[in-house]
Specification:
The protein is built from no helices and 36 strands. The protein is mostly beta strands and 455 residues long. The protein has two domains: 338 residues, Methylamine Dehydrogenase, Chain H; 56 residues, no CATH class. A hairpin with a 5-residue loop joins strand 12 and strand 13.
Length: 455
């Protein structure tokens, strides 16, 4: 995803309460009060299908796109794919009909980026409508010109039964766009290889490169500062050629698997992913965050178990998505977990410091539903804090009511998406005098409210 400084609760959802269970390694080193608060925004669904959004791009407060795919049962039996191509107009999200593809194929979109409201690219894989057909996948690149989406032909490698997939896209200018992905030629004996494509304003062409296999994400700050990453590979384009730049080596016995990259400039870039290792009969992972300083990559922090996406607004304002810890924020000195509604998020972007979007799917339930989260929240806020008693219960009355027990030894609590208004917070614990405090909740920010009980 290219870094740009250009950028109601769903289904009647109520307050979401999350209990802090301690900080992941390298995270939660600072107070998060004052950061934007997050809430779920209603997302359109495609029938009774399993919906999943994989990419998001915000050009301005009233122009954003989210892309993904849906899988469900076809009318005549079996399963089929549908394309998710969703637009934000400043008021609501709506599903947009995708352009027709040759041979009746269906686009499963995995990434989206652009240079502005009238120049947006979405990339992914074109598959047969029947989901049971898993060979012969082709690259797909769709372009939005401000009025219509069109399918722009893109190259493929290997044999007809090989699978070609585009996984990342970075738009530098209308005539300078990069896309990365992978060729799976295992059926034909060709093995796996990276795909690197460039659009020059007239068409897409394949670019020879020394970057190795496994490219999954690409980001740029300018035409001569482009990074592509994936697996244990990081590769840089300086305007004339691509050159590998080895990522920091993981801990001995672990395998590096990078999945996202964000570039701010020649001396500031972030790559995220995970390290993988065997633990008994299972496969375990640790989150991986690496930082480029102009000379080399260093491991900066290892939050969570799997960091999937990253977006850098500024050197002291970087956001990332962790599989188990949700949203993470870097303020220039350290990472902290940021409370957000529950969901399995895949990508994050910003139209500006206070116009943030994250997309993915709901967690739990079947079929899953596409989920879109936004910050700063329009009608809710998040309240966080701590008590001096691990057995305390936090209750509140006001525009909404509820309670949550503090169950960990740190005494932390989190209340996500609390409607705005004035509340009475009551804190109780066995053997302690109750404490009552009026709390005014204003939209859009994380508010900190601590309590000290007399016991």
């Amino acid at each position: 995803m290219v870094r740009r400084l250009t950028r109601r609760l769903a289904g009647g959802a109520g307050v979401v309460v999350l209990l802090s269970v301690g900080a992941p390694a390298g995270a939660q080193t600072r107070d998060i009060a004052g950061l934007p608060s997050w809430e779920v925004v209603a997302a359109p669904a495609v029938g009774e299908f399993t919906n999943r959004l994989a990419g998001v791009y915000a050009a301005s407060p009233d122009a954003a796109w989210a892309v993904g795919s849906a899988l469900g049962r076809a009318a005549g039996g079996g399963q089929e794919h549908r394309t998710l191509l969703q637009r934000w107009d400043g008021r609501s999200w709506s599903q947009v009909t995708p352009p027709a593809l040759p041979g009746g194929r269906v686009a499963q979109l995995g990434a989206v980026d652009g240079t502005g409201p009238d120049d947006v690219w979405a990339v992914g894989v074109a598959t047969a409508p029947n989901a049971n057909t898993v060979t012969g996948q082709r690259t797909v690149a769709l372009h939005w010109n401000g009025r219509d989406w069109t399918a722009v032909p893109s190259p493929n490698r290997g044999f007809p039964d090989d699978n070609n997939r585009l996984l990342g896209v970075a738009a530098v200018a209308s005539d300078d766009v990069w896309a990365v992905g992978e060729l799976d030629g295992s059926l034909s004996g060709g093995g796996r290889a990276s795909i690197l494509l460039h659009f020059d304003g007239t068409g897409w062409r394949a670019v020879d490169h020394p970057c190795g296999a496994g490219l999954r994400a690409v980001s740029a700050s300018s035409a001569d500062d482009v990074w592509a990453v994936g697996a244990n590979t990081a590769c840089h384009f300086d305007g004339s050629s691509w050159r590998p730049a080895r990522p920091a080596a993981p801990v001995a016995g672990r395998r590096l698997d990078l999945a996202g990259v964000a570039v701010l400039g020649p001396t500031e870039a972030w790559a995220v992913g995970r390290t993988v290792y065997g633990c008994g009969e299972r496969v375990c992972t640790f989150g991986e965050v690496q930082r480029w300083n102009g000379a080399g990559w260093t491991t900066f922090a290892t939050p969570g178990v799997d960091v999937r996406g990253v977006h850098a607004v500024a050197p002291d304002d970087v956001w990332a998505i962790s599989l188990n810890d949700g949203l993470l924020h870097f303020d220039g000195t350290g990472w902290a977990r940021v409370p957000a509604p529950r969901g399995v998020l895949e990508d994050i972007t910003a139209g500006g410091p206070d116009d943030l979007w994250a997309v993915g799917a709901t967690s739990g339930g079947s079929p899953s539903v596409a989920q879109i989260q936004h910050a700063a929240s329009a009608g809710t806020a998040t309240v966080v804090g701590g008590t001096n008693h691990a057995g305390a219960v936090i209750s509140w009355t006001g525009p909404s009511s509820g309670s949550v027990p503090v169950r960990n030894s740190f005494g932390h609590y989190e209340i996500v998406a609390l409607p705005v208004g004035t509340y009475d917070f009551i804190v109780t614990a066995a053997g302690c005098a109750p404490q009552v405090r009026a709390v005014t909740v204003t939209a859009g920010r994380i508010i900190r409210q601590d309590f000290t009980l007399s016991c």
